[in-house]
Amino acid sequence: MHNDPASTAAAVLSRVGGPANVTSVAHCMTRLRLGVADPAAVDEEGLRALPGVLGVVADGTSSVQVVLGPGVVGEVTAAVQVRVAGQPVGPGEPLREGLRRGEATPLKTALRRIAAVFVPLIPALIGCGILAGLGGLLVNAGWLPGLTPALAAVASGFMALIAVFVGHNTAKEFGGTPVLGGAVAAVVVHPGVAKVTAFGVHLVPGQGGVLGALAAALLATRVERWCRGRVPGALDVLLTPTVTVLVSGLVTLYGLMYAAGVVASAIGTAANWLLATTGAVAGLVLGGLFLPLVMLGLHQALIPIHTTLIEQQGYTVLLPLLSMAGAGQVGAALAVYVRLRHDTSLRTTIRSALPAGLLGVGEPLIYGVSLPLGRPFVTACAGGAAGGAFVGFFAMLGDKVGATAIGPSGWALFPLLAGNRGPGLTAAVYGGGLLTGYAVGFAATYLFGFTRRSRVAASA
What we know:
4-stranded antiparallel beta sheet, 7% strand
């Protein structure tokens, strides 16, 4: 079943109540995300027992996340979509409506839907970020001067138009016409906005960034749905798109771009102030709390903040801090491997999951090792807090460490690192944070991560 996505998809569907119970299908880098009409029909234990399933996040609501790991998740998702296609959710009910009606809290709904807007953008962010880093290295070294302008254009094209993709995905997620969401969001980055004055100041192309695009597309979706219910059918094809683009575009120009620009600037200012004045404490808190967010699947809600910082400053200073959580997890897993030397099954799991952990994919170690054992999960958080405090301390000294794209962490983040003191020092600070996370995660787990019974069993 490990090597057959079709079989894995069939097994997963059989344990979530069958294809007819699935209301939505999506995936991120490691997780298959399913919306279900009847949460009671989900067999969580059966899902966890499937070969190839690294973990399950299901809190009794209509959202189920099945952790499959990078690469595999895309193949299994495609196989699931084939089986779910055409399945009715209820009499006359669209596919996504089942998901919308069953969420437990508005906050969880909002976080998951915002994540659904940005998660599909991560592959492009990673690819363009790596190319941008490569281009920067070539420029600094003076190599291939004839190629670097073209490389810069390829790397920058997506970020220049990311607002359009955000608008498209927002409208798609919230029930509008995707191309209309993209059309309205495109206003944010159009050069012509420089001729528009709002609140006494000239607008700047890109002002408000992805936040402005998100707000514009949400408004466009509301306007479009309002029009659909009031415009006669014969005129709908002409009036609805026109009114949607006109009303939403004008409101975006004369209100949303300015407001989103203020919010985006506040995010950048707050991040810089936080690291400059309380960097060690901020790193400790962020590095220590990130694993629980990953466990709950809520870490994707941070993507808009990362993207805003990348748009403003060229890199996000938060991602390297958060990445330290994975380092603490690796250290904790190594301590478990050493202490529980007679647990052959667990040590096999650690050996198979450790390479992914070193590259920043933490779910295999979380669900396969630390979370089932309990205490090692807490001590792994301690390691992440120590690594975050290390990187944050250097930020207080003026040595910023950032990432030009989001998605990778651990050792996979090195090609994406950027800072204000040169690549050598930036890599050294980040590497020092990883080593600190490994060491503290290992020591804390080795000394405090086991109950008396587990220590006796380990020494037997």
